[in-house]
Specification:
10% strand; alpha/beta; 19 strands; 10-stranded mixed sheet; 5-stranded antiparallel sheet; hydrolase; 19 helices; globular
């Protein structure tokens, strides 16, 4: 939901909580502000009210504790003043303190707060809060002014050409066949059909252990997302396999381009059938109690998938989606005087067939430079391979390349020569690709080009985010986190209170939003509570990201993309979970001052 809608929801929660009814069965107020436990006044807790407003009714024993450092009042700067004022008010009203006031057990109090909070979250999601995200939106990690961009560059696969999910199934079937027929793997593997929604982009694969998993931005494995074959690995076993920790050291996670000595990160959409075939083959060997070497299996599956790419040439056109949109983008850019270029790892015959299908036989007229079989990312980070020219039949020519001319097709080469021959440098160049490492990383970090990441998964994930179920689940998750944060004080350290808090913590860790995306691995952008390793790289290597290049059609070519100023943890004046719990301070320093 947008920041404005979140703000509206937060204000609604605050207003609602300020006048909330008494907790069911308990003559204590639902919410008050500023205290450690700021709703349904805790036993023995001190109350203070925002801007000096009168506090809600408190239990009779609220000031009975003579120790100013006990209970929720520990370290509270207002405690003595508030206590004296409370005594004066009670004296004037003729009321007296009573040591025989009924005691409220902590367990009952905690669950009362829980239930009241759940009701508030359910009731106060504003109508129309869903469907706020447009899947055709371009999102900005960095400010980009299109008016300053004169040159647009593109990768081919999953950038200019988007493919249907049927292509993944075809690649899987062909690679499985190659594995059985060429490497003589058991015929039983042929019985494993492709599972469309099993894997997700951005996952890591432990080559030596044969485990597929999801890792967050801080190199921690997300528990519940580790798979050996097609079956999840219990959390306890994961901890044993990684020496008592779910943290994977940096040098093992991956190198700069996504592959370390022990881990491989699958970063492009073409990797989905490869991950699924790895899982299927592992599952076959484990289920049939056959010893095998996971490292050799990984290598054999990788070669099998790569061997399929030549086969797809004959039938690729039937898998291409929305070719008319690709034509519209190229036509619009060219008609506005923008220079266009193509740098792809695919062979010319493959690209030529697809571009003729999408754009027409004169597709090369749109591009000022076309480079095929570029061997990215090496194209961007070394200057070894020279450019070679291909004739109209795709045959290699051996003349020295002194210029990159429109209408010609070039093979291999390197970025150093490309920059010398074109003079296209810096932020006036915007390059689009789907692979964060091979397409974007070097251009962003070493050469100062603007970069745009194509993330087709955004279309599906946006639909999930726009559902009422997601809005309810996410808001409750934030509210529950706020409750946990506020209730972890020493007054709730008895056995029953600890059990309640553990139940809440378990509910929080189950992360109900995960199953709304991929049932095995969840969203490609988030683990339970942190950004994923993929998401971290997306923010680092791309100025912009979007579901497809057709999103450009929604914006004027002088449009400026501004990133949202997301508050840092120490900047946020007000968080959703604080609104939900009635906490108006960040991070309630007064109540926590006793830690010093």
């Amino acid at each position: 939901m947008s920041r404005q809608r979140l703000g509206d929801l937060g204000r609604a929660l605050w207003q609602k909580s300020s006048s909330a009814p008494l907790c069911a069965g308990l003559k204590i107020p639902a919410f008050a502000c500023g205290g450690v436990a700021s709703s349904c006044g805790a036993p023995g807790e001190h109350k203070c009210c925002k801007q000096g407003a009168n506090s809600s009714r408190a239990p009779a024993n609220v000031a009975a504790n003579p120790n100013p450092h006990s209970g929720a009042a520990a370290g509270h700067r207002h405690h003595v003043v508030g206590k004296l004022r409370g005594e004066e008010a009670l004296a004037k009203s003729g009321r007296a303190f009573s040591s025989t006031a009924p005691q409220i057990d902590h367990k009952t109090y905690l669950w009362a707060r829980y239930n009241e909070m759940k009701r508030l979250v359910h009731d106060l999601i504003p109508p129309g809060v869903c469907n706020l995200l447009n899947p055709s939106t371009i999102y900005a990690n960095n400010e980009v002014n299109l008016d300053e961009v004169d040159i647009y560059g593109f990768d081919y696969d999953y950038t200019l050409a988007l493919y249907s999910n049927s292509l993944n199934e075809m690649i899987y079937n062909k690679a499985r066949q190659f594995l059985v027929e060429h490497y003589k793997y058991p015929q039983g593997i042929s019985k494993y059909n492709y599972i469309p929604n099993f894997a997700a982009r951005g996952l890591h694969y432990d080559i030596q252990k044969g485990l597929l998993m999801k890792i967050d931005a801080f190199h921690y494995i997300q528990m519940g997302t580790v798979y050996r074959g097609l079956k999840p690995v219990p959390d306890e076993e994961v901890m044993q396999l990684y020496r008592g920790s779910n943290h994977v050291p940096l040098h093992q996670v991956s190198g700069f381009y996504g592959k370390g000595p022990k881990m491989k990160q699958f970063m492009d959409v073409f990797s989905l059938p490869e991950m699924t075939l790895l899982a299927a083959a592992n599952d076959y060997f484990i289920s049939n109690d056959i010893e095998y070497d996971p490292v050799h299996l990984y290598k054999d599956v990788s070669v099998s998938v790569q061997s399929v790419q030549g086969i797809t040439l004959q039938t690729v056109n039937k898998y291409i989606l929305r070719g008319d949109e690709t034509y519209a983008v190229l036509h619009r850019l060219a008609s506005h005087g923008k220079k266009l270029f193509l740098i792809t790892n695919s062979p010319f015959s493959f690209v030529d067939k697809g571009m003729k299908y999408m754009v027409g036989k004169d597709w090369r007229d749109f591009f000022d430079v076309v480079i095929v079989q570029a061997d990215k990312p090496h194209f961007f980070n070394d200057c070894v391979k020279p450019f070679r020219r291909l004739d109209s039949n795709g045959d290699l020519q051996w003349d020295k390349i002194k210029s990159l001319d429109k209408g010609q097709i070039y093979k291999q080469g390197n970025l150093v020569d490309f920059l010398k021959l074109t003079g296209w440098r810096g932020s006036k160049v915007l390059y689009f690709g789907d692979h964060l490492y091979s397409d974007l990383a070097d251009l962003m970090l070493r050469h100062g080009w603007r970069t745009g990441a194509i993330v087709p998964e955004l279309e599906v994930e946006t639909k999930v985010v726009n559902t009422e179920q997601y809005a309810q689940s996410l808001t409750w998750l934030q509210a529950l986190t706020g409750l946990l944060e506020r209730m972890q004080v020493h007054m709730y350290r008895d056995a029953e209170s600890k059990k309640v808090l553990q139940d809440w913590l378990k509910e929080r860790e189950e992360a109900v939003t995960k199953n709304l995306f991929n049932p095995q691995f969840g969203s490609i952008f988030r683990t339970c509570h942190n950004p994923t390793y993929f998401s971290r790289r997306l923010c680092r290597f791309s100025d912009l990201y979007m579901a497809s290049i057709s999103c450009l059609l929604n914006y004027d070519l002088s449009y400026t993309f501004y990133p949202r100023r997301t508050p840092l943890q120490h900047e946020a004046p007000l968080w959703m979970d604080q609104l939900c719990t009635g906490c108006m301070k960040t991070p309630f320093l007064e109540e926590m001052a006793h830690i010093r």
